[in-house]
Amino acid sequence: MSLIEIQNVSKTFVRSNELENTVLDEVSFSVKKGECFAIIGPNGSGKTTLLRILGLLERPSKGNILYKERNITNLSKKEIVAYRQKFSFVRQKPVVLNASVANNIAYGLKIREMEKSQIISKVKEIIELVGLKNKANTNARSLSGGEMQRVVIAMNFILSPEIYLLDEISANLDPKNVVLLENFITKIKQDKTKTIIISTHNPLEAIKFADRIGVLNEGKLIQIDTPEKIFTYPKDEFTAQFVGYENIFNGFAKFDQKTGLNHVKVDDLIVYTSDQKEGHVKVCIRPESIVIAKNAPDNTSFCNSFKGKIENIRDLGNICHIFIKTKDKKFLSSITKESSINLNLKPESEVYFNFKATDVKCL
Amino acid sequence: MADELLEGIIKAFILIFTFDPEIWDIMFLSIRVSGTATFLASLIGLPLGSYLGLRKFRGKKALTNLLNTFMGFPPVVMGLIIFLLLSRSGPLGELGLLYTTTAMIIAQLFLAIPIVIGTSKAAIESVDPALKETILSLGSKEYQLWWELTKESKKSIIAGVIVAFGQAISEVGAVIIVGGNIRWHTRTFTTAIVLQTRMGEFGMAIALGLVLIIITFILNYTLTHLQTKKD
């Protein structure tokens, strides 16, 4: 049985000039108890709205939200409070009360009318956990963004909610605080009774935690799958690009008797793939899968080898993005800086670039 | 004219520093009337204003417009309305309240209520919506949210009350009509200044004017202090 189910949820905002803006379009998915579900998508894809609807802070224009098979879409004011208490909503930009760190963390328990001595001992325990013990009496508004986000996490964690809704919570944080937060999410995950729904525009963050990922684009949920499936078998061009396939070309795939592989005709290039799809396809290759060599490879496991001219090199610190031009296609290869130096790559120099048939995905 | 002015100022200082009983009477009466009106206006206006600020409902925009109109309601017209209601032949004439401090308090109360409602509503509305959501998502009930937002905007709310008092104590149109400017009974700063000026008693007028200015200065100083003070 699923813990939460979203059925055909749409959300349309009507602006004052009668223009309608559909933020969510027929979104459906369900999350099981103890699962970590990640919603990934670019900014403006509707992630926050979806989480706000889940947190009962916003009502959908259409569709239903089910909690343990009970419809909780249109609850009365009284009931909605009881259900909201099962959820914790942590937003991207932390907001705290104008009170001390300790009082902020205690707030949720106070409004639940817990005994004072109990609150004090719980706050003490959790304030240590988020590493803010020496700031207990500081006004939470005077903290840095990272510390404030930790206060908000503590404010929610102390309430021991069933479901955590984490909306891009590490988007504005420095690396140190990101690590602290991620440790915290891991901690929540270890408690198998807790369910987590996170939203992020960073696919790598999603892989780290999620049991399943939903890809959201322009309000539509495009694909729901395990991280492995999403990253190896993206369903469409958008997902492919979003999870890091920069090289996407149109082509025509046919089975090749000789090699036992499919070959795809991309203009005048023939690309071998281990994918079985035939007919018109989109060929997707990750930049990391493309290896650059100075000479033509002899006897190689790479089925695909092409010659091209380096058009541009973008230095990103540890890695370099190499843009290679063939007659009428452009490929992007991502290699380490070290190999870029070893190969002495320069714009305009001619190189060979190779990739395996298993690294070519066809959509 | 210059002589009269100088003479008036000298006389004013003499009156103030000799603690002239009439000046004290007028001062206490003014503060009592405007203070009571503001206090009652706050009792009614603060819960109402913050509630309006919290809720969304149909017709809120129209209500806000109406409220804004009443915030700048001409005191003299308010005086006229209350006068007509309380005059002997009026619907509330039997209460015999005309030309009493009660009538003055009523008139100022109706002038102050929209100000208190308007400012406290705006104060609650100006709270970051993200904070509202955070409080809600932590599982608060509506009255708990209301209390938290009121605490959050307490500075602006207090500022609104001070503004209402400041308006009341310096207002002349309403109190002169419903109070009648009766010496020792319903004479306030403003009505006294009007009368003394008419009679050419500039000393008394200037003295009262100075005290009134000092009071409004203290109010505005408190206001500025409140708004710039850090928590």
What report would you give on this structure?
- The complex is a heterodimer of chains A (363) and B (231).
- Chain A has helices at residues 47-54, 77-84, 101-111, 116-129, 145-157, 175-190, 203-209, 227-232, 237-242, 337-342, and strands at residues 2-14, 20-32, 36-40, 62-67, 70-71, 87-90, 163-167, 195-200, 212-217, 220-225, 247-255, 262-266, 269-273, 279-285, 291-293, 304-315, 319-325, 330-336, 350-355, 360-362.
- Chain A is α+β, with helices and mostly antiparallel strands.
- In chain A, strand 4 (62-67) and strand 5 (70-71) form a beta hairpin.
- Chain A folds into 2 domains: 2-239, Rossmann fold; 245-362, RNA polymerase II/Efflux pump adaptor protein, barrel-sandwich hybrid domain (OB fold (Dihydrolipoamide Acetyltransferase, E2P)).
- In chain A, helix 3 packs across helix 4 and helix 5 runs parallel beside helix 6.
- Chain A starts with a strand and ends with a strand.
- The radius of gyration of chain A is 25 Å and the shape is elongated.
- Chain A has 10 helices and 20 strands.
- The model of chain A has no long low-confidence stretch (mean pLDDT 89).
- Chain B has 231 residues and is mainly α.
- Chain B has a single domain, classed as MetI-like fold (Orthogonal Bundle).
- Chain B is 78% helix and 0% strand.
- Chain B is built from 11 helices and no strands.
- In chain B, helix 2 (21-54) packs across helix 8.
- The longest helix of chain B is centred in the first third of the chain and has 34 residues, at 21-54.
- Chain B starts with a helix and ends with a helix.
- Chain A binds chain B through residues 52, 55, 57, 77, 81, 84-85, 87-89, 91, 93, 95-98, 107-108, 111-112, 139, 141, 152, 155-156, 159, and chain B through 128, 130-131, 133-142, 144, 148, 151-152, 231.
